[in-house]
Amino acid sequence: MSGPALPGGWSSKRLKHVATYNDEVLPEDTDEDQEIDYVEISGVSLARGIEEIQRVSFGQAPSRARRKVRRGDILISTVRTYLRAIAKVDEATPDLIASTGFCVVRPGDGVDSGFVGWVAKSEPFVSEVVARSVGVSYPAINASELATIPIPLPPLDTQRRIARFLDDKTARIDGLIEKKRALLDRLAEKRQALITRAVTKGLNPDARMKPSGIDWLGDIPAHWETGNLRRFARMKTGHTPSRSVAEYWDNCTVPWFTLADVWQLRDGTRWYLEETAEKISEIGLANSAAELLPAGTVVFSRTASVGYSGIMRISMATSQDFWNWICGPKLTPKFLLLLFRSMTQKFEESTSGSTHKTIYQGIAASLQICVAPLEEQRAISSYVLASASAIDAAAMKVRESINLLVEYRDALVTLAVTGNISVRQ
After folding, report:
1. Dihedral angle computed from the Cα positions of residues 8, 14, 20 and 26, in that order, rounded to the nearest 10 degrees
2. Is CB count within 10 Å lower at the N or C end of the chain?
3. Rounded to whole angstroms, how far apart are CA atoms 315 and 91?
4. 154-199 per-position pLDDT tens digit
5. Pick from 152, 175, 209: which residue ends a domain?
6. Which 8-state DSSP code applies to residue 259?
7. Quick check: helix, strand or coil at residue 8?
8. pTM (2 decimals)?
9. How many Cα atoms occupy the beta-carbon half-sphere of 29 within 13 Å?
């Protein structure tokens, strides 16, 4: 493991010389009804350790649920190593069964398991694991190769002192990070409440209200309209030109919005679609069900990232993964976008499918909305944009402070396990 020079009295040894790995596995004849506490790679992160433990019967667990894990062991993912799924197994954690995608490291006598665990989570060690991995889509490292990575090793009493120091210091940092993440959650809730109230109640707190007759809306201002969305906007779908016809994909000039572009809409802070990863040709457009939709069209993701929405800044086509709405004379694109972003719960209730959530055409076409007069829609949109932008700016500062704390935490771990800071107390 490369990194800062080690202090006097420290040594460097390969991991396999201070620990064993993958010592125990469940036997093939394990009773299928036996309950196990199973941990998968997706349930482990470098920052938070073991985040999810599944209580399942052996018969229901994946076939890769094989490795036995004891308290004091260290889990290091050997597949998809870019995920950096590494965790120490502490005293509060029950005996586990881990995926065979982990190398289960068990520190031996003469070394402190807590210290080795911190070394495994330090940046030099993690980078070495990633660097030695092979493969593009699913980079992996053999456990035997991982075990040859050298680690820094001070005297045992120093190991214990460093482990206690990092346990204490990182717990304090993690506590502060969690408070900041809770603040982000509150800001997100405030933002959502702002949008929902503005597009369902308006800006005048003294406005006379009436029942909307629509379950998700409740009371609305008495002078607003309600009705099926198709009363106020035309519904269009998208399409993908045939990939087998090469000329459909030559001289591509038409912006084409697909699921590869949904990242622009995920955090809900963007109003407009800015770019597309792909374009299609004029001839591909002419020979498919795709349409060139005008600027101002509101795009609504109907599958995978259900409900994500945005406004076309320029004319675009879309893939079949979207319902597209061209607003009529009584509805502005911005107000419709805000309505969609206030309907999160409604969309969750309206999706079908266990693996790939989808809002089908019949459901999307039957959505009921409320519509304010045009001038009021514009005033509401301006107010929400300004207010939400202020919340977004505050949230960005919180995220930046979280990133700084994470960087400080990672640096502290590396400095401590390589002897480059004093941990006498």
Report:
1. 140
2. C
3. 59
4. 999 999 999 999 999 999 999 999 999 999 999 999 999 999 999 9
5. 152
6. G
7. coil
8. 0.80
9. 0
